[in-house]
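Is this the right way to post structure tokens for a design question? Let me know if I should format differently. Anyway, here goes:
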């Protein structure tokens, strides 16, 4: 029996690596499949892993119909036994329902991979529908880590090194760690987007719940430590000028 399986986890927990491995395993057994991706860090029509693995894929757009994608291939003589659907959090709820229909009516296995919530801890529409419809939801066992060494459970977005909780749900950025020298004007304690002469640097980072609530990123912790390497010490977000203030900041003193 075909299944719809959703593999979820935070950034950096190996979702794309597993997607490529599963595709390899199924192809090695003579099964035919199609790889799909959406907004991959390496560009359109690609599934890439931070380990350096990369392969081509079909880019998913707002008007992509998975049912039609499979029907066109099967009627042209191609074998489609399974689908690899990376970055599935960016799919629409209707597209997830198309995937479920393929499982039930065409006996196509669907393996979807994606993060569940965005930088505001809000469920992505695609992930929410997958959780509601999937035969199995599997949380990946490879744990991403916060800069403090604890297990990371939240995906944080930064702009010019400062964590933000407002903005568009989908915005492409890197997840490479930032240092003080990476962020223009950071020594002047500017606010995001105010530095003249440069485009705001958008980045992403995985944080434990504690430091997500305190708005303390690795970059902010480094600044508080005077530029020394980050250590698992107790940092107070109120000491970090870029952590935010006012209602909704979620900051408290220890």
């Amino acid at each position: 029996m075909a299944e719809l399986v959703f593999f979820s986890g935070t950034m950096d927990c190996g979702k794309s690596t597993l997607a490529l491995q599963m595709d390899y395993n199924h192809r090695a057994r003579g099964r035919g499949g199609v790889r799909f991706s959406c907004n991959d860090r390496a560009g359109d029509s690609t599934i890439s892993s931070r380990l350096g693995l990369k392969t081509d894929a079909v880019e998913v757009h707002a008007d992509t119909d998975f049912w039609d994608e499979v029907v066109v291939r099967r009627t042209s003589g191609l074998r489609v036994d399974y689908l690899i659907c990376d970055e599935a959090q960016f799919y629409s709820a209707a597209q997830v329902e198309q995937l479920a229909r393929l499982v039930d009516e065409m006996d196509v296995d669907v393996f979807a991979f994606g993060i569940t919530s965005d930088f505001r801890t809000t469920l992505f529409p695609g992930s929410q529908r997958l959780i509601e419809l999937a035969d199995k939801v599997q949380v990946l066992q490879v744990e991403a880590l916060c800069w403090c060494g604890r297990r990371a459970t939240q995906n944080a977005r930064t702009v010019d090194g400062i964590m933000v909780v407002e903005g568009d749900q989908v915005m492409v950025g890197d997840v490479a760690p930032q240092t003080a020298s990476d962020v223009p004007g950071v020594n002047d304690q500017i606010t995001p987007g105010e530095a003249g002469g440069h485009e705001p640097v958008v980045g992403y980072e995985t944080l434990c719940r504690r430091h997500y609530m305190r708005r303390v990123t690795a970059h902010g912790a480094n600044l508080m430590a005077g530029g020394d390497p980050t250590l698992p010490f107790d940092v107070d977000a109120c000491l970090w000028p870029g952590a935010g203030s006012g209602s909704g900041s979620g900051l408290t003193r220890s």
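Format looks fine. Someone answered above. Worth noting: The radius of gyration is 20 Å. Residues 177-195, 235-241, 243-254 have pLDDT under 50 and may be disordered.
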